[in-house]
């Protein structure tokens, strides 16, 4: 009996010792990744980061780097405030990422080369995406950006070749150079006016990018910002002071451009072979060398304002009809000697400087009118926006209505 009891005690001791081992068997590796942060990788490939505070930066590789090919899912728990630089770089098998509401920043190269991630939602409190944060995430086709985001780092989404659409919130004030370069599937983009500068190579080589809206408030468009894009039409708002050199070079699908920028620098639209029509607003002051060089399909150019400064080859290799506005006799800038070829073969045609006059109903205080256009220079009125059909005042204006007399009854004064 005593012998049986001893064997039972030994067996119970062995089994109790094995229990913790059995519970821990699911853990592949673990450690710390910040002053108050802990990480653990389980056998299912789930890497979980927990604790409170900021994650460390790992320029030389995170502590789980030797297990990167085992990681398929990343879960960052509530309480973590930042993802460190290069934290999950080259974890190429990660396909799902869960981020906490407490997150305020994603560091440089945090998810660089995570080529299996297909979608990600950035939490609402996140204010910054670091440089190359999602560089070369080739399967990423959808990302949700928070309404409080302020900065998108340089090359943040560069070479994300599956990314189709990104909504930039109005809270964003800075987007680094080349942030979306080489996003070959990107189809549309709306840049709010809060982004003051469209930086260098921002959308270069986005060959599917057909539709772009630039918000009023944007002040500059940098070199190669849209180089080699698939744009078909572009409107550059009046708030833009400068379009820098080669900004739209080799946009081979671009057909029309409306430009209100103050200055357009050298080769900004060089070799946009499909470009057919350009309208230059009253705020345009200077067009540099070769701005429209090689735009061999360009056949119509319209200047809406006074003559800007033009380089001797602004329209190199262009054969087009150029329309310029009629001007008041005491403020002529389009003189005979300014109507040159500027490197191309240009036919100059003067047009009325037309302003639209909206229809107005007559009242007893003022006459009304039909909708029409009026030349700011000569005062003539026209029925059409092209100034082809002139109309007389009698055909446009409606007589004022007669007064309607209302007789108020007499009232005796009282105390």
Give an overview of the whole structure:
This protein has 415 residues and is mainly beta. The protein contains 2 helices and 33 strands. It has helices spanning 2-24, 393-396, and strands at 27-34, 37-42, 46-51, 53-54, 73-76, 80-83, 96-98, 105-106, 119-121, 128-129, 142-144, 151-152, 174-175, 188-191, 197-198, 211-214, 220-221, 233-236, 242-243, 256-259, 263-264, 277-280, 286-287, 300-303, 309-310, 319-325, 345-351, 354-357, 368-369, 372-375, 381-382, 390-391, 397-398. A 6-stranded parallel beta sheet has the order 4-6-8-10-12-13, with no helix packed on it. A hairpin with a 3-residue loop joins strand 2 and strand 3. It is flat, with a radius of gyration of 33 Å. Mean pLDDT is 93; it is low at 4-25.
């Amino acid at each position: 009996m005593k012998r049986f009891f001893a064997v039972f005690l030994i067996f119970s001791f062995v089994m109790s010792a094995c229990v913790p081992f059995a519970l821990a068997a699911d853990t592949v590796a673990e450690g710390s990744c910040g002053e108050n942060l802990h990480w653990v990788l389980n056998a299912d490939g789930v890497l979980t980061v927990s604790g409170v505070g900021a994650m460390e930066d790992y320029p030389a590789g995170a502590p789980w780097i030797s297990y990167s090919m085992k990681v398929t899912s990343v879960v960052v728990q509530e309480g973590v405030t930042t993802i460190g630089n290069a934290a999950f770089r080259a974890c190429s098998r990660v396909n799902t990422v869960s981020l906490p509401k407490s997150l305020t920043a994603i560091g440089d190269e945090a998810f660089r080369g995570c080529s299996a991630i297909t979608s990600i939602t950035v939490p609402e409190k996140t204010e910054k995406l670091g440089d190359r944060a999602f560089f070369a995430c080739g399967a990423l086709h959808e990302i949700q950006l928070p309404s409080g985001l302020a900065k998108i780092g340089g090359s943040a989404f560069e070479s994300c070749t599956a990314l189709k659409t990104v909504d930039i919130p109005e809270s964003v004030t800075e987007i680094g150079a080349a942030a979306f370069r080489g996003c070959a599937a990107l189809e549309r983009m709306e840049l709010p006016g809060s982004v003051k500068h469209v930086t260098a190579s921002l959308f270069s080589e986005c060959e599917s990018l057909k539709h772009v809206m630039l918000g009023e408030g944007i002040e500059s468009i940098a070199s190669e910002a849209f180089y080699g894009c698939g744009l078909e039409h572009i409107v550059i708002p009046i708030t833009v002071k400068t379009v820098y050199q080669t900004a739209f070079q080799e946009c081979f699908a671009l057909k029309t451009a409306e430009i209100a920028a103050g200055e357009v620098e050298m080769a900004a639209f060089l070799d946009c072979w499909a470009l057919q029509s350009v309208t230059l607003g009253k705020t345009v002051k200077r067009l540099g060398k070769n701005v429209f060089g090689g735009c061999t399909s360009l056949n119509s150019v319209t200047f809406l304002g006074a003559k800007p400064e033009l380089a001797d080859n602004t329209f190199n290799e262009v054969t087009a009809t150029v329309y310029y506005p009629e001007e008041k006799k005491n403020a002529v800038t389009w003189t005979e000697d300014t109507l040159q070829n500027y490197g191309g073969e240009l036919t100059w045609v003067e047009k009325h400087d037309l302003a639209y006059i909206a229809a107005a109903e007559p009242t007893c205080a003022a006459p009304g009118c039909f909708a029409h256009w009026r030349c700011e220079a000569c005062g003539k009125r026209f029925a059409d926006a092209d100034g082809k059909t002139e109309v007389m005042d009698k055909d446009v204006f409606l007589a004022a209505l007669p007064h309607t007399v209302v007789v108020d009854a007499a009232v005796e004064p009282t105390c």
